[in-house]
Write a structure and sequence with these properties.
heterodimer; A: about 500 residues; alpha/beta; TIM Barrel; 2 domains; four-stranded mixed sheet; 18 helices; 19 strands; globular; B: about 200 residues; Methyltransferase, Methionine Synthase (B12-binding Domains), Chain A, domain 1; Rossmann fold; five-stranded parallel sheet; 5 strands
Chain lengths: ~500, ~200
Amino acid sequence: MWNKCSASNEVDNQSVQFRVLSGSQCRRLYNAVLEVLEHTGVEIFCEEAVDVLKKAGCWVDGARVRIPSHLVERAIATAPSRVVLSDRNGARRLFLEGNNSYFGPGPTNPTIFDLETGERRDVLKSDVCQAARLTDALPNMDFVMSLACISDCTPGLADVHEVHAMLQNSIKPIVTWAYDLQNVDTIISMCEAVAGSAEALQKNPFVVVYAEPTAPLRHSREAIEIMMYMSKKGLPLLYTPGVQGCATAPASRAGVLVITAADNLAGLVINQLVREGAPYIVGGVTTNMDMKTMIHCYGSSPEFSLMHAAMNDFIHFLNLPGWSTAGCADSKLLDEQAAVEYTLSIYTAALSGSNLIHDCGFLETGLSGSLEALVMADEIVGMVRSIIRGIRIADETLVLDLIDKVGPGGNFVSEEHTFDNFKKEFWLPRDINREIFRQWAKKGKTTYAQRLNARAKQILKDSQPSLLPDEKLRQLQALVDRAEAAKAH
Amino acid sequence: MDLSNIYDSVINGDREQIVQQVKNALSEGADPDVIISDALIRAMDEVGQRMKDGDVFVPEVLMAANTMKKGLEVVGPLLKGEKRRSAGKVAIGTVEGDLHDIGKNLVVMLLESAGFEVVDLGVDVSKAKFLAAIEEAQPDIIGLSALLTTTMTTMADVVKAIDGRVKTMVGGAPVTEEFAAKIGASGYAPDAVTAVDMARSLLV
């Protein structure tokens, strides 16, 4: 299902939005990042990338690479300011540009809450099929992630099997991860098979692969190799360090932004040197480490949302597509705490006008997922999108003629204008309850969590995934088999 | 003799005062052993308890430990007879393919502050390197850390190769008690604070 008005933050029209950083603050942050890259430098554990950087004029000392500012500026100039993601059929759907915001689930959680038993257990490939089908049917979820690091497959092939499951159960664009170069090649080969050719996928990409440097300022071989592979292919790569104030970054909100931006721009330089104009999405999960439990905070940290929003101001300043995180919780289950965490993070992310917003359906600091929670996130995104849309002031919306016609003491319920507009102007809940007490009691006094569980089951029962032709399914299976055979050796 | 100012400095992480306070106590005739046991170690034990109670945060614990160390540096050389006994020796690293070391570094800091001798093997440590460390460093415990679900699986290999010659402890965000039991590790700790207790209990 597609929401006709997916883009939630259309600032070009009058829209509700906010800024955390001013233009001059972004400029100062940018100069700080350039200084870190030029003076402190980063560690790159990939010889091919180090060679490329050295040839371009970086100062290299072993793995330590110091990047002159002009190379960073050139990379920003050559990277496309927009990336358009298509659906599986090649229809252009997600316009990652300006302040358009799109939402989707998260990846790599080792556990999930079983929809039937409520038990928290290891994630299976069948769960990815369900998560993809559910995401496909939810009107406010715009892209698919696996909501899993599956356990029931050959070790080291979870990423391949997850994409195999997602491709068959949703037509929405896929954002995914990969263990290494070999697996990303299998994953892209699968997507090319579905698209029909490498060029077809490049023209209308429906997959984004993300790679993660190891903050602070350290880039693993695997991350760089995945990134360079995508760059060579001319396919969208998302680079996303996990940066934690007090741990992998200073105990300073601005310091977290510096590390996040520095690691991203170091990645961008390599990406653009490998192939000028390769699509690149600026990521980063900005948060703080809790100094009591030492967990990597998700939605329970207000600064998590604030710093993501600030990072997106910076990304807008660079005029590149950006990434954010919301609809995720540190709560261990779908409860009141989770609802607070989801709501605040989703609202802030949408206000920030970030292009791709992931991690909906996460619980337990990203270690667990929940399909009910994904349904809740979808409903919250719906509410938030209604707010972000703002209020249009125009003759048609001021409707003075109608006000004059109805006059003092009249009512508008039976007016044709109301009939035509009530659904467009006012958000309608799906599982958020507005019934009077007696109605609600008569229907079993359900909690929101119970209704979300029932809704998730019902959507899965009713939804019909758009099936791939048998020929494509065979091609996908052959690629999976080939990856399995390679692992067996 | 009143050593409460030294005790308080450790608790408050006051690194400015501690050296002079210990020197003063010594010049007033305090027994070095007593300074250590009644002020420095007792204060650190109190900080550890407060951390478990959730009253202090990890940076405060680390600062208290640094303060205690500064005090020990003054008083340690004056000890008669045997040196202060270490709580045990731990060699620790992140497993092959994993560069994420913030968790491992926390465990190192907290073990050291609890009186353990720690050999930090660094990141991306191969099975061979872990095995070599057993010969070279003669640790009581080998600690293995992983953040990634992929690299986690290599822990099983290393634990198997160590084959019970020394105790093994595993940890990291995706690691669970069940996983630790399955691969035959001697101990598992969900976080750095618990890792210290686990290390202690393994050496009883």
